[in-house]
Amino acid sequence: MRSYQIVEWDKPLELKEQLTPKPSGAEVLLKVDACGVCHSDLHIRSGYFEMGQGERTYLAKMGAKLPMTLGHEVVGEVVELGPKAGEIEVGDKRIAFPWIGCGHCQTCKNGDENQCSSPKFLGTRVDGGYSDYLLVPNTKYLFEYGDTPTDLAATFACAGITAYGALKKCGPLDADDHVLIIGAGGVGLTALHIARALTKAKLIVADVNEDKRNAAATGGATATIDSSEKDAVKQILEASSGGVAAAIDCVGMPTTSRLGIDTLRKTGIHVIVGLYGGAMTIPMVLFPFKQMTIRGSYVGTLSEMDELMELVRDGKVPPIPLTPRPLHEANQVLDELSRGEIIGRVVLKP
User: What is the pTM of this model?
Assistant: First the structure.
């Protein structure tokens, strides 16, 4: 099989020819139909995350070993089953849930595999979907996607579950509330669409890119704000009648998170999902004065994926802008993504 792998950190992916794996035990072999290109793939390719103040945390110290095939938003066709794989047949089309834990720790036993300290995440710790084939350890990680277009289905493995997990942490919302989504990339636009299925709250989207703001407006945002403008906070406060009930930072920069915090109403919730990196200082008195909550969210659980896919199969989540590209353009697409040139999601096709 052909795979685009990280062979050396912070270098272009390399095409490698390998033997197609044979599934054993409960494993399932998928023939990859599409694999989404996520912004976190840039961090994974570089091999580190920025912690701020010159500090970095390195994937090699987190258990990642090279060479490794990138890609964690995978949809494909079942082509071979291990002898213990059940409740699935060759020819079935499935989304692969990539946030797989060790399976042995108490966190995994509790159903929170995305929080495992020794994860086996597809495309970030073990081989992923920038390839012809993907080996999935168990059928429980495979999800039906009904009549959803195949390329769109791939995006729910990360953009979808990340957005859904973040929205569930925003607390109860009603029609008079406002939610701020910061960053209108793949995750932000997906959050906008999923939010419309979950709540009647008004949805404000902030981004520095006009094309992305236009995509958000087309996607149903109540208001769009240029977050690079000096009076962006004022604009959001005016659009939300005094402050948002919740903000979701899909970028994860100090400036973007501060935008969310500064526009929260009292008792508001700020959820950070973006991995851009850095560090920020927050005045301590803001916590009691605003009675606010700041929390992180990392993708989602298997049960949340099940909830999300029920919405998807029921046709309640509209598509984000999608662009299919051939797998051999993987490096080119990553470079375009790093320059902010991608609207919505690109999916790679073997």
Answer: 0.97
